[in-house]
Design goal:
Distance between the termini of chain A: 21 Å
Helix content of chain A: over 70%
Number of helices of chain B: 13
Oligomer: heterodimer
Distance between the termini of chain B: 62 Å
Order of helices and strands of chain A: HHHH
Radius of gyration of chain A: 15 Å
Radius of gyration of chain B: 24 Å
Largest sheet of chain A: none
Largest sheet of chain B: 9 strands, parallel
Number of strands of chain A: 0
Amino acid sequence: MDYNEMLFEYTEYVKRVPQGCVFIADSLREDKINDALKGIHDFSEGVLWLSHISQLLQKENINVKLNIQKIQQYLIEINEGLIKQDYVVVADMFEYEIEPFFSEMVSLNTKVQ
Amino acid sequence: MDWQLENAKDGNLTVKMNRYYLYSKYYPYKDACKWICSEVDRTASVYCLIGLGLGYHLKALLELEVKQPIYVYYFGTEEYNLFLENNKDRWWDIPQVKLIHELKGLNLDRNVQLLIPNTIVKAIGIDHPLHSILEVIKINSVSYKKTSAKMEQNFIENSKKQNEFLRRPHYTQTRIACLVAAGPSINETVSWLKGQQKKVDIYVVGAALKVLLHHGIVPKAVVLSDATEGTIHQFSDTNYCGDLYYLCTANYKTVEMHQGPRTILFQKGYQLAEQYAKKNNLPLIETGGSVGTTTFSLLKSLNYSTIVLFGQDLGFTGTATHADGSPSKNVITSTQFLREAEANDGSVVYTTAMFQSFWYWYKEKVESTNVKVYNTALKGLKIPKVPNIDLEEFRKIIYEGEDING
């Protein structure tokens, strides 16, 4: 895969994350716990992939701003909520923290383009 | 109960009950509305909401302009006072709404909808006297909500088929019924059945059918209850032609795959099934939430006086929840959400909330029946009044049955 393609895949994936966050939050609030947990699993894998791709792109001086520390903080809070099975906390994180975070990334990427 | 009020991000109050948030800490009332809107069944005759908290769920329910009576159960004076202090305008003080703390003697219409926020079940904790019953109801209602559309479609399609109907025999079955489920103990005990299959009546759940066939055991009947297409794999490529007993809401495509005779069953608690059964004077089956418990009800309806449980572990050691060769086999990778319970051999094994709900069902049914029930899952959950037997004892039960019946 060349780096333009990689950047395209990266940007397209980031665009889909906010919708995924809303799906997870809604599923948790509607007691569809299994669906939400699958979504959270996919989200975690997705974040790993984004982190890996952003490092590769940055090495080629393609600037993709991914605040991985912030995402890691979110993941820690989500994990704490999951351990306790406090799904209200987890739903809140996805709906009111992570979704706006990625929506802003999408909007910044769009402005750059 | 420990109650902690907090300011939510939107300026309203939210509350923690025993360190669990009852509502969002961002938009608590919006969160309550979302849940109520997704839960409410407008065809219910009465609502019973569990948990009063700050009253957001109750308020959301009234905003839907439902006309039915609403009972709201609160857990204690502290919760009640917390609610009063934060709802001084008494918007809730109307004839339609009754705040209750005593459930004994409460006579609700059969068509009641119990509204149980998931967070309440977590917050009250496993030691609360209401925890087990609320959890069982919650598990069953979530499961029903997930599959209700499919269940209806299956009911319609299955009703069109050529079916036998369940007829309760007028005599007591003299042979022993072996109920075979797909728990891990069947890996060991399947050989017991192989040796005795001609002397007992084997009723197997769909998830264990291939396990038996693989060992050269042909059951008398297989039982199917699940509405989803995941059960197709249980029957594919088996060529099994024995009897099939299936719930009217079981997956119709899976039913169609079966080559042998088919008997349709109608379950209590499902309106379409109850209506059909009443109209045609047919018996109703209790499902208990699983194909294993459905099979138990079936065997009681067929007048078996002795039932031996195989593979009905309801618990596990290690990582496997089901037997080798069962399409239902799951591998547990984390013990985080598991519970510990006593096994038949006195050891401690893992179980899940769902398995535990089936255990409670068995405990209640065994308590109130004259049927002799035995268990063979040494590492399965101990069910009170269900003795665990080994191979020698199993043979003895069969021979004693033969002696009595000549």
